[in-house]
Amino acid sequence: MRAYAQSTCNETFVLNLGPQHPATHGVLRVKLTMDGEYIVEAEPVLGYIHRMHEKMGENRTWLQFMPNTGRMDYLHALAYNHGFVCLVERAMGIEVPERAEYIRVITSELNRISSHLLWFGAYILDLGGFSPLLYAFDDREQILDLLESVTGSRLTYSYFRFGGVCDDIDENFVAGARAFVTRMRERMPMYHSLVTKNIILMKRLQEIGPISAEMCRKYGATGPVARGSGIDFDVRKHEPYSVYPNLDFDIPVYTECDSMARYMVRMDEILQSLRIIEQALDKLPEGPIMPPKAPKVIKPPKGDYYQAVETARGSLGMRAVSDGTNTPYRLKLRTPGYSNLIVFGEACRGMLLPDALALLGSLDLVIPEIDR
To answer: 316 and 308 in contact (C-beta within 8 Å)?
Structure first.
């Protein structure tokens, strides 16, 4: 970071946070106008990792774009896979076998937990605690081993196909997933004892970084950021897709609006994802993983199509305009991290810089999906 005096008259100065600062987790730059230790203005500056994903979507076939979806939010890549296949299946009227739908939900929820665990470990590390990161990565490795066995990847997945999934899960995967559910439930009290009830963490997060429900609506914030501000909205419940309507789970909502509320939402969501996985494994039917007459060539009819799914960071919207060819005419993505980041500019005004970093970490930003 480099600081310099902006003016000798108003006695403020500009501080560049990032783009390579550890607290920004990637290549985010925030231009801060400071009055001593206090933030006057904060301007997020994007563009350091822009890859033109939307433009690439208009220059390759529908199927060729599938790997791109897993490279935007690399921590919850399967949710992006899910959104894109649902979009094309809705456009072409493709019926997905029930077994494939359950497999999609099981793998997506495992991926959601792995995302929350990485956020948990990195967030506590930002605040000065190192040990929780090691515990979180130990649990996350269990998930990555499971997903690698069926997808062939450990991070940027491209597992779903239009009409199903590319490979079936076997008995070893089912047994491993059940063992992980049991293990994770036993580990959660340890996380709360070690971290959540730690007085230092409580002092760093409680009543720090308030984000009101009105501010969330103003900027379009979703996911744990909105649910930590008392907004009861989750795409899986309110715009249900796949087999989520067949599963019983709750949406954690906290009304405190501070960084601790956002922390608690994600910790509770890990337990809810375990509930979903356990039920999906119990209800997993036998049968094919692809429809018998899956289309060989993907050419959605002319039209304007939209699909929303719930990622670990909030509501992902995918809009495509088809001209009837094998290439999208227009592809537009509404990623949750972008809206959640814009909240930071208003929410951090008047805050001390260390408190602003606690707020920034509570947003769980993944810069490639914001910059895409």
So the answer is: yes
Count of alpha carbons within 13 angstroms of residue 122, beta-carbon side? 21
Average pLDDT score over the chain:
93
> Environment class of residue 264 by beta-carbon count within 10 Å: exposed (0-12), middle (13-18) or buried (19+)?
buried
Kindly report the pTM of this predicted structure: 0.94
For the chain, state the CA radius of gyration. Answer: 21
For the stretch 12-62, pLDDT in tens is: 999 998 887 777 777 889 999 999 999 999 999 988 888 899 999 999 999
Alpha helices, DSSP H, located in 10-151:
53-57, 66-69, 77-92, 98-126, 131-151
Interatomic CA distance for residues 235 and 55, integer angstroms: 26
Q: Token pair for residue 167?
A: 């490979």
Which among 191, 24, 207, 184 is positioned nearest to 120, based on CA atoms?
A: 191
| Cα–Cα distance for residue pair 268/289, rounded to 1 Å | 31
